[in-house]
Automatic annotation (TrEMBL), chain A:
Chain ranges passing through the membrane: 51-70, 77-98, 118-136
One GO BP annotation of this record: methylamine metabolic process
Protein name: Methylamine utilisation protein MauE domain-containing protein
GO cellular component: membrane
Signal peptide: 1-19
Cellular localization per UniProt: Membrane
Domain of life of the source: Bacteria
UniProtKB/TrEMBL annotation, chain B:
Pfam families tied to this protein: Rhodanese
Signal peptide start and end residues: 1-23
The organism's taxonomic lineage, starting at the top: Bacteria, Pseudomonadati, Myxococcota, Myxococcia, Myxococcales
InterPro entries: GlpE_sulfurtransferase, Rhodanese-like_dom, Rhodanese-like_dom_sf
Keyword Signal among UniProt keywords: yes
Residue ranges annotated for the Rhodanese domain, each copy included: 72-159
Name of the protein in question: Rhodanese domain-containing protein
Transmembrane segments: none
Alphabetized SMART domains for the sequence: RHOD
Keywords, alphabetical: Signal
Source organism of the structure: Anaeromyxobacter diazotrophicus
Length: 162, 176
């Protein structure tokens, strides 16, 4: 019992921490998406014509992922997207640093330079995403949970809301 | 499988939300327009905040004979577009954000390396020169007066007289 409580607490803490990071990251970028587009361009990973679209999409996905993690709806799917984004960020930062490209990180708005510490920070952020993915339990639908027969017959069955 | 499907749905919803946010923000990303890296955008290179490093200078008068005699390698620190539009004959293009290692072999062949910028007040040439010094290039100078002084003096440019130094090369064409 205490073990499952500890596990639930760990998942909740990971979810909320990741949600806070993603929502904060989006909030710092939304006021100046033009500047973020420039930061994206400096990574030289996206064709120039697609850069503004990619910049807008990244910020929107950060918001949706943050809200999903915050509310717990589709939290595991959100953690999967968060992990995917972090892997792309880590790859983007690493290739830029290895190629000697001197650029702003663009992670949380502002003028923060990209360096290997930024990569390490993103690697650490993979930990809560992994915890939510690996240990997070999907919710049972309310109707199923309230029905004694269905609830008993399908105890522990995973619902479709990941 | 449902997990991946839901993840893709979140991405799609997020992308739409991002486009909506872009329409509402005071400084939107310019959809439908190209956004190039700062180092490649014409005129944008000088917006990079930099240092006025203590790099030795060389005047156009001193540099011209070195160009004609092929005893110096010129490094163009301006944007790709500006380089394509015209550059000192045989100059290597190296923007501040680009890696030095792939072109280091080429720099080492010459006794002197002269870096030039788009305008005399720009510090990008200093940034590139500093980077070259850090990579062990010995004699690096920044051209006084930059590109405008070179063209004003009618010194050899892409159609000039020191083409025998070899064809222009970009940083990407680094392998020997």
């Amino acid at each position: 019992m205490s073990r499952s409580l500890a596990r639930a607490g760990l998942v909740l803490a990971s979810r909320l921490a990741l949600a806070a990071i993603f929502l904060y990251a989006a909030a710092t970028k939304v006021p100046d998406l033009a500047a973020f587009a420039t930061d994206v361009a400096n990574y030289r990973l996206v064709p120039a014509a697609l850069v503004p679209w990619a910049a807008a999409a990244v910020v929107g996905i950060e918001i949706v992922v943050g809200l999903a993690l915050l509310t717990g709806f589709y939290a595991r799917a959100a953690a999967l997207v968060a992990a995917g984004m972090l892997v792309v960020f880590i790859a983007g930062l690493s290739q830029a640093l290895l190629r000697g490209i001197d650029l702003r990180c663009g992670c949380f708005g502002g003028d923060e330079p990209a360096d290997w510490w930024t990569v390490v920070r993103d690697l650490f952020m993979l930990v809560p995403a992994g915890i939510v993915l690996a240990l997070g339990r999907a919710r049972r639908p309310a109707a199923e949970a309230s029905s004694p027969s269905a609830g008993g017959a399908h105890l522990g069955r995973i619902s479709t809301r990941y | 499988m449902a997990l991946v499907r839901h993840a893709l749905a979140l991405c799609a919803a997020g992308s739409l939300l991002g486009l909506g946010a872009n329409a509402l923000t005071p400084r939107p990303a310019p959809l439908g327009h190209e956004v190039a890296a700062a180092a490649d955008a014409p005129g944008a290179a000088c917006q990079i905040q930099g240092l006025q490093a203590a790099i030795p200078r060389i005047s156009v008068e001193e540099a011209t004979p070195l160009c004609v005699a092929c005893s110096a390698l010129f490094v163009d620190a301006r944007s790709s577009a500006e380089y394509e539009a015209g550059h000192i004959t045989g100059a290597l293009h190296l923007a501040p954000g680009e890696a030095v290692d792939p072109v280091l072999w080429r720099l080492g062949v010459y006794k002197t390396v002269v870096v030039y910028d788009r305008d005399p007040n720009c510090s990008v040439a200093d940034q590139v020169a500093k980077k070259l010094l850090e990579h062990g290039v010995q004699d690096v100078r920044v051209l006084t007066g930059a590109w405008p002084a070179w063209t004003a003096a009618r010194a050899p440019n892409a159609a000039g007289s020191c083409a025998s130094c070899g064809p222009p090369a970009t940083a990407a064409k680094g392998s020997p």
